[in-house]
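Incident review: delayed structure delivery

Summary: a single-chain prediction request sat in the queue longer than the usual turnaround. Root cause was a stuck worker, restarted by the on-call engineer. No data loss occurred. The affected request and its eventual output are reproduced below so the record is complete for anyone auditing the incident later.

Affected input:
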Amino acid sequence: MLKYKLDKILFLDIETVPQTYDYSSLSDAERELWEVKFQQTKSRFDDGATAEYGYLNSAGIYAEFGKIVCISVGFLSVRDGKQIFRLKSFCGDDEKKLLDDFAQLLRRSYSGLENNLCGHNIKEFDAPYIARRMLINGLPLPEILDVAGEKPWNVHFLDTLELWRFGDYKNYTSLKLLTHVFGIPTPKDDIDGSQVAGVYYNEKDVKRIAMYCEKDVLATARLFLKMQGLPTIEDDNVEHVK
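Output delivered after worker restart:
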C-alpha cells in the first residue's frame, strides 16, 4: 500500500545566488562577517583560496549571504486516466515577492496533515533556506514550513536523499548520480548549480534558470516514483503553468 497520496505532494527545488556578484559591493561589516564564515568553511576550497573567491563560489548556499532567485514546483494529477505533472516557477529579482507568491500557494493548497513537500536534500537545504529567507524578508512562515522545534513525525518533508540512505548517513548521493543509476533522463543538460550566479548576474536570464530548476523538479518526481515502484512521468504528460 502506498504510504503517500501523490496528489498531496508538492515537489520543489530552489536556485540561489550570492546577494551581490561583486565582492567589493559588500559593506565592511558584511565582508568581516563573511571572512569569519569563510574561515569556518575553508576546507571546501583549495589551499590559497581567498575570501573573495569563496564568496563568489559558495556564498549563495548560505541563507545569511545569499538569496533565492527561483523556486520551481511540480504536482501530480490525473486527467482522462493519465498521470499529468504540472510545473510552475516563482522567479525574478524581487525575492520577497517570489517568496510571498510561493507562500500563498502553500497556504492555499498545501496545508494540513496529508500534505508533503518533496525534494532532493530538502531537509538540509531547500526547506530551511526558504524558511530563513522568508523570515529575513519579514514574511510569516506557512504552517508546513514552520517546523522549528517540531518532532520528526510532525515535519512533512519527503527527502529523496534520505529515502536513498536507508538510515546510512555517511555519504551524500547527488540527484545527478541517482538519476543515472535509475535510468532517468539527466536534468543537467544545460547549466549546473555552479553556473547559476553567472547566468543570473551576467546574462540576467532568470527564464533559463527556471527551466534548469524545473528539470530538477521533474527529475526528483521521477526518482521518487521509481523509489515507490510506480510508473514514471511521460514527457508528453508534462505541462508548464504560467
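Verification: Strands lie at 9-18, 66-79, 82-91, 116-119, 157-159, 238-241.
Action items: add queue-age alerting; document worker restart procedure.
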